[in-house]
Structure to design on (447 residues):
């Protein structure tokens, strides 16, 4: 086998031309044809009696091409795998293959074009690790605030004939216009909107304070500069809003009936479970906060040219995760407008680059996932469900899910090693401030 390896049009692209002796392919094809020809159970061919051997030329005429192409495909795959192993290459995706020469009695020649995962000789920035470690705990006041939030989530609503106040729920129709023209996904009907929820872009909800049922209101506001749809970022917009109802909240009492809404038997049990959930959420948030700081330092100090195949795979994965978080039925999912890929590109680039950097660090530190920590993480993740044991079983029966947990644990171990040789500054922050700082920006237009 001869291999000619060349660099491609960009830093990650490789062009590899492979020449393979096909004597074994030709020999194997003849053997396969002989098996078919001498097998009385050969496929039916018009003009020839079933259950009788075939002339070898007839077998070749009918089956020779498909047999050869199958053998050629297997030969190319084996040759490509051998060539990338011999040249210590890590393809980032499937190669584009072009056959240059494929004739019986002559060597097979084919060209492959593919991207490789870039290698890193050294991870930079390890001497610049400086992180802020948050110290926080769940207080009685935090618990009381969370219970109040739960009351609001289970409020009932009564229509009122008065001006709308903060925390009232409006039912509205709206149409959005830019330069006098309606824009895509800028209109909706019968939208429930709680004033003060910050669900809409800044200025939308505050502009509806004081309205009454049956009124129309025109809001002249502006999309945020950092809005997730690039074509709308920073654009002045006019919303024509019809207020169909103003309703005020009726909050339930925190009593036995309220506890039973959450499948627990008493208020004390409810408080205990809520507290446990808050403490677990805080633990994950604090770990993520430190990890994100370290990861940002690694990204800033190691510029990676991300291979296009890996970037595209990660963008698609992020899109599917975003759809899954919506909790929609399959039918509802089909009705969704296409998600613009550009809103995922930056995050996908960071995630792929980090994967490459962390792979290098795993080798440098010779670290493997601590299986006891993996087990504890699975238990913690499962504990929020009604039947934790079945969720634990689900994790252990799904290799892909377990791989994600192991990767997360491995990242935690790497972060601990990195901050152990860096600088750590401790800072006290309240529970809700920690959670708010970790939450993605949910402000949107409602579309």
């Amino acid at each position: 086998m001869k291999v000619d390896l060349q660099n491609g049009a960009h830093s990650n692209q490789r062009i590899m031309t492979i020449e393979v002796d096909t004597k074994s392919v030709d020999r194997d094809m003849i053997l396969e044809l002989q098996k078919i020809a001498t097998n009385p159970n050969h496929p039916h061919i018009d003009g020839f009696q079933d259950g009788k051997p075939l002339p070898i030329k007839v077998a070749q005429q009918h089956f020779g091409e498909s047999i050869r192409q199958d053998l050629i495909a297997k030969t190319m795959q084996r040759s490509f795998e051998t060539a990338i192993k011999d040249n210590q290459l890590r393809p980032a995706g499937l190669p584009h293959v072009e056959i240059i020469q494929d004739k019986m009695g002559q060597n097979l020649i084919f060209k492959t074009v593919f991207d490789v995962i870039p290698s890193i000789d050294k991870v930079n920035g390890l001497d610049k690790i400086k992180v802020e470690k948050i110290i926080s705990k769940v207080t009685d006041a935090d618990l009381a605030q969370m219970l109040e939030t739960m009351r609001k989530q289970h409020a009932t609503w009564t229509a009122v004939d008065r001006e709308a106040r903060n925390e009232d729920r409006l039912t509205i129709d709206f149409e959005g216009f830019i330069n006098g023209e309606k824009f895509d996904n800028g209109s909706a009907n019968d939208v429930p909107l709680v004033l003060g929820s910050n669900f809409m872009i800044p200025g939308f909800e505050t502009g509806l304070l004081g309205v009454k049922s049956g009124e129309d209101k025109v809001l002249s506001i502006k999309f945020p500069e950092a809005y997730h749809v690039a074509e709308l970022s920073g654009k002045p917009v006019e919303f024509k809003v019809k207020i169909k109802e103003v309703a005020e909240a009726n909050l339930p009492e925190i009593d036995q009936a309220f506890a039973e809404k959450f499948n627990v038997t008493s208020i004390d049990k409810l408080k205990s479970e809520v507290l446990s959930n808050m403490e677990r959420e805080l633990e994950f948030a604090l770990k993520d906060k430190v990890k994100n700081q370290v990861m940002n330092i690694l990204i800033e100090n190691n510029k990676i040219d991300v291979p296009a195949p890996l970037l595209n795979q990660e963008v698609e994965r992020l899109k599917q995760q975003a759809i899954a978080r919506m909790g929609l039925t399959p039918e509802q999912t089909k009705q969704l407008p296409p998600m613009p890929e550009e809103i995922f590109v930056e995050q996908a680039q960071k995630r792929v680059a980090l994967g490459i950097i962390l792979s290098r660090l795993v080798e440098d530190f010779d670290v493997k996932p601590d299986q006891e920590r993996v087990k504890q993480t699975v238990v913690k993740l499962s504990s929020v469900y009604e039947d934790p044991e079945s969720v634990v079983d689900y994790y252990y029966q799904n290799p892909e899910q377990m791989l994600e947990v192991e990767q997360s644990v491995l990242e935690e171990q790497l972060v601990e090693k990195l901050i152990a040789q860096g600088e750590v500054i401790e800072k006290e922050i309240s529970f809700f401030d920690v959670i708010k700082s970790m939450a993605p920006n949910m402000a949107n237009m409602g579309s």
